[in-house]
């Protein structure tokens, strides 16, 4: 009997991305002993351009386009993504075939001297590349200096340790996955800082209709995470936002109900709109309805006006 054809897993080249690809490979080997797996490193725009804030590069597919091209060209069979990086609308011919069980979705503060956000001194310099984190930090502490910080997890920690920043904020999941969870001095709960849509979850993108690959990936699917992140992504899609706008969302299970929290803020955190909704969610259609409905409530309170003002500022900055 001929051997099962292998799988080529496409991934970015950062230490965290490689960990994620190796985690997926280990899960696949556990389900399919003897399956040949190959890791293919693909460099993305977001990896190449490190001297420009993410919001100035553009927010559509910064860390995914090249992986998706490799899928379409047949160079890889599966693209391993941090789900928060994956745009809500996938290119024709591609599909999100599996969503793995989510790691802790919260953001973490790394502040070696102060420890807690409330204990940072006035005008302390805090690093982040995320407009969402910037807005929520300034809503909590308008006296802080929030400065742009790019690079992979070890690079950002190195810059903190060299004294470039008093503190940095990053996804707690990334620290945990790299065995660096102890570096977090405070984990910021969603009541203080809502995470990015899909944060902490891994998504496996494939060519649509590839039944062989879909069969191999099926055991990795985690339905509760799929439904929660589907609601979050539906909210983001309805607001026509990308990963570089101040939009946060988190779906949390409460019995058989999904509680969805949503946030839209201006860049400085002065006007931050929060809403929450709950519904029984048994399938993706129900999850999408929950997300779209919460987006509508945010729009009714002025979310569209806030996002359009941010877009106008970005256009003016590019044209300057």
Can you walk through the features of this model?
- With 320 residues, the chain is α/β, with parallel strands linked by helices.
- It contains 11 helices and 13 strands.
- The strands form 3 sheets. Strands 2-1-3-10-4 form a 5-stranded mixed β-sheet, with helices on both faces. Strands 7-6-8-5-9 form a 5-stranded mixed β-sheet, sandwiched between helices. Strands 11-12-13 form a 3-stranded antiparallel β-sheet.
- The chain is globular.
- The mean pLDDT is 91.
Gyration radius, in Å:
20 Å
Q: Unreliable stretches, pLDDT < 50, 5 or more residues?
A: none
What's the SSE pattern? EHEHHHEEEEHEHEHEEHHEEEHH
Strand order of the largest sheet: 2-1-3-10-4
Strand-pairing-aware structural class: alpha/beta
Secondary structure tally, helices: 11
Helix content: 25-40%
Name the overall outline: globular
Question: End-to-end distance, in Å?
Answer: 65 Å
Query: How many β-strands, per DSSP?
Result: 13
Query: Describe the biggest sheet?
Result: 5 strands, mixed
Percent of residues in β-strands: 15-25%
Mean pLDDT comes to: 91
Brief account:
The chain has 320 residues and is an alpha/beta fold. It has helices spanning 15-31, 45-48, 54-57, 65-72, 131-140, 153-161, 172-177, 211-217, 223-238, 284-300, 303-319, and strands at 7-11, 37-41, 78-82, 94-99, 107-110, 125-127, 145-147, 167-171, 186-188, 202-207, 247-254, 257-265, 272-280.
